[in-house]
Amino acid sequence: AQTVTQSQPEMSVQEAETVTLSCTYDTSENNYYLFWYKQPPSRQMILVIRQEAYKQQNATENRFSVNFQKAAKSFSLKISDSQLGDTAMYFCAFPDNNAGNMLTFGGGTRLMVKP
Amino acid sequence: DGGITQSPKYLFRKEGQNVTLSCEQNLNHDAMYWYRQDPGQGLRLIYYSQIVNDFQKGDIAEGYSVSREKKESFPLTVTSAQKNPTAFYLCASSQGRRTYEQYFGPGTRLTVT
Questions:
Q1: Tens of pLDDT, residues B62-77
Q2: Looking at the complex, does the CB of residue A91 fall below 8 Å from at least one CB of chain B?
Q3: Could you give the C-alpha distances from A80 to A20, A65, A86, A110, in angstroms and in order?
Q4: Which positions ≥6 away from B109 have C-beta within 8 Å?
Q5: How far is Cα of residue A37 from the mean position of the Cα atoms in its chain?
Q6: Hey, is the C-beta of A88 within 8 angstroms of any chain B C-beta?
Q7: For chain B, give me the number of helices (H) and strands (E)?
Q8: Residues A63-73: what's their mean pLDDT?
Q9: What residues in B contact A43, CB-CB < 8 Å?
Q10: Which chain A residue has the Cα nearest residue B42?
Q11: Local confidence band at B1 (pLDDT 50, 70, 90 cut-offs)
Q12: What is the nearest CA distance from B13 to chain A, expressed in angstroms?
């Protein structure tokens, strides 16, 4: 079974600073995708960024970027120039090819951006 | 606008009653999913469907049932057999291929007393 682990239950960062959220996973597959989702207080799940495992280049979406280390099975999310609107739960997710591509989620990291 | 709708946003029921949560998508996605989220936790899969008239149990299917009679609709029934039904329920859809991310509805908060 695939597992996804987020070791930081809570984090905080000052507005305009940079923060990194960690995620590790376990899989025997070679080609796969990884996702970071954001869940603000509204509880709507919003896709932040995705990484394709066969690409060595780390994915970037505006202020969000990942540090993907395939050999270490690590997939961290870096948020630059943090904004108050970044306050949310962040989930790392991995699709299970054997279960209709359902997403296996990590336990989440609660990020608080302080003014 | 394309998207996923879930209704209602808040739902209250008495213990022992069945309740059906609605999920509709107009994204023309093949696959649809139901997840449950408990406070402070991640999402757990209840059921998924990759095609019309077919669905599979997820990790926590006991006490739940679904149907997929139309591509755009995937309702979830929480039965009286579900021991702890109070939770936040999220519906999602995707194009069904592993390369595609899932898009989520706004969720339904179910409270059973």
A1: 999 999 999 999 999 9
A2: yes
A3: 9, 8, 10, 17
A4: B9, B10, B11, B88, B89
A5: 6
A6: no
A7: 0, 11
A8: 94
A9: 37, 88, 106-107
A10: A107
A11: low
A12: 21
